[in-house]
């Protein structure tokens, strides 16, 4: 179950006019943990759609890379353990 102990959400905007060749997100847990990273993009109707995932199963780190992210609303979701996307995020 998703809660503040298993999921963190970070929303930001990818702005045009910059060299947005690659978006990188990484996570390193303080203790061994299976961290998964998900990248979402906001759709015109306000909902969020998953566009990339990093689910390696490593217990020491996780890295997500996304080539040429388009401008607009973007969200990064970091989870540990079993978790579902928040409402409105698929």
Description:
The protein is mostly beta strands and 90 residues long. The chain has a domain at 8-14 and 33-55 and 73-84. Helix content is 0%, strand content 49%. The protein contains no helices and six strands. The protein has strands spanning 7-14, 22-27, 35-42, 48-54, 62-67, 72-80. A four-stranded antiparallel sheet has the order 1-6-3-4, with no helix packed on it.
Short description:
About 0% of the residues lie in helices and about 50% in strands.
Q: Characterize the biggest β-sheet.
A: 4 strands, antiparallel
Distance between the termini: 15 Å
Radius of gyration: 13 Å
Which strand order spans the largest sheet, edge to edge or round the barrel? 1-6-3-4
The pLDDT mean sits at 82
- Overall outline: globular
Q: Give me the strand/helix succession.
A: EEEEEE
Q: Which range best describes the helical content: under 10%, 10-25%, 25-40%, 40-55%, 55-70% or over 70%?
A: under 10%
pLDDT below 50 for ≥5 consecutive residues: which ranges? Answer: none
Number of helices: 0
Would you report the number of β strands?
6
């Amino acid at each position: 179950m998703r809660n503040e102990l298993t999921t963190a959400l970070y929303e930001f905007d990818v702005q045009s006019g910059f060299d947005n060749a690659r978006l990188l997100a990484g996570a390193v847990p303080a203790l061994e943990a299976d961290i998964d990273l998900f990248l979402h993009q906001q759709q015109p109707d306000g909902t969020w759609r998953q566009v990339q995932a990093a689910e390696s199963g490593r217990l020491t780190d996780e890295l997500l890379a996304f080539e040429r992210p388009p401008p607009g609303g973007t969200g990064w979701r970091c989870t540990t353990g079993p978790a579902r996307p928040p409402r409105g995020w698929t």
